[in-house]
Fold Transmembrane protein.
Amino acid sequence: MTSAVPSYSYACIAPDRSGSSVYLVGVPAASEGRLEAYTVDLSNIDSPAATFLSNQTSSYYWSSAAPKACLPYAGNQDAANSPVMVMQFSPKSYFTNIYPNRTIDFPANFQSVGFLSPKLFSWTGAVGPLNWATTVANTSSPTTNSAWTGLRLNATSIVDSNRDFVISTYPVSNPLLSIGTYVASSNTPAQGYNVVFDNSGGGVIYTVLDSASLLLTDRILSLSSPQPVDMGGITLTTNAITATMNSVGYILDKATDGSTVMYSISPGKSSKLQRVAVPGNVPIFSTNIAATAMGARVVIYGSSISGAPSFNSFDTVSGSWSGPGLVKPASYIPPDSRNGSGSGSDSSKAPVGAIIGGVVGGLVVIAVVVFLYIRHRRKTTHAGPAATVIHAQNGYEDPSKMHNPAAAPLMVQNYALQQQEQAMAQNKLHGHHMQQSVYTSQPPPPPPPPHQQQDQYALHSHSMNHIPVQHQQAPPVIFQPQPQEPYTYTPPTIIPSPPTQQPTIFQPQNLSPDQTYSQSGYIPPTNVSTPHTPSTQAYTPTHSSTTAGSPQYIAPPNGDGYAA
């Protein structure tokens, strides 16, 4: 029988085997000590249907004011009765397994050790019925002088879970947030990653090695190879929560306008923290928000604008949110060429529009520069020969004869005119040969492509409208001196100006689009059974050592229904 989605101040969610429903676990404030578990069908996320699964009541163990985290056993999802692990944090740190057959294991804890917050609980491995996680305890180990510890949680027997303070490398003592990712594997040692963000705006990535061996022969897990996180200018707040999707970690945070902003990191591929680009509407950030990964979606539970509990889902493939109560964010930051969207988009592809615009802009600039250069050369060429003629005349003329021809004898004048006529004839013939040589020594430039021809024609037509008429029609003047007559004036020879050649515009080459620990495997037991213990007998740890503790069951006080 379905019902409305219940409201919890500190809830946790985890996907079930169907891929369309989630477990919702919490303790209602009106029924203190009653741990409730529901399955919620999200096929219609705007109208989710909640189905009650089971409950466990004990005010000694469960609290409505204690934060919680839920994890599926990803390596054991094929099992028909694969449970979900529920971890409750300080002030009462207990954990248990809730099974699809409505069974809930008795709560367990580690003696004298509690865990601080789900924000510092990182899922770093999943093989068979085992999960590995790193977390921060409420006490430091005298051996390691650190509160960081490793956990190995068991799906088939909660009493076989273990804790170990020795993890080889230890993150900062005052972390802001911690998130884990893992590499899917069928045997151990398995690999994962732990990303720890500090309160100074930085972060460190650690490689995690998970082991299924007994504590007497190996550690539960070890951290190594720390490297800094490329924050990319991102600053996380104390509101941020996490969701692990196998090898990708998602962080949801509260934006300045109260909406939800999302970041992603794939520590196995890149050290960069990226903002997930969401062009559409987003949900508001709720104070009691809980998140989990379900397939390719990130699902969150929280209060809607009206205050009623609701679910929203983010599709990492389409990059869009769905569900009720979505709002338009104050600003949208699209992904750049480096960080991508974090939702599967290929950030290595360059924007085609920017490339085309750059090429066209470059061609225009080059064409303008070439045009101005040729125009300047024309002006220089026109002025050069005239200056040469004047200068040559000043060098060879007789001032008394050129400015007063009548003062020279008639014979001398006739002789000079005759010499000038002969020189003009020779210069015409010589100039004709020179003109042919100039024209034939320069092969015509290859015709540009059609679109370039149009651009060149338009540019030439525009430039011709601004060239003075005398510059278009003024022919060049070439002066040829006659060395045999030092005082003979040789007039310039008029040579018709060759047709103006179009400037050669640089054309870029077409770019091709294509240029651009050996250990035995862990074998999960075939029969899954729920441990049953007589009410008169307290649980004892399966494994014990001086370096790490196994969980133990705490007998509740009389009157809670767990002890005789």
Summary: The chain is about 20% helix and 25% strand.
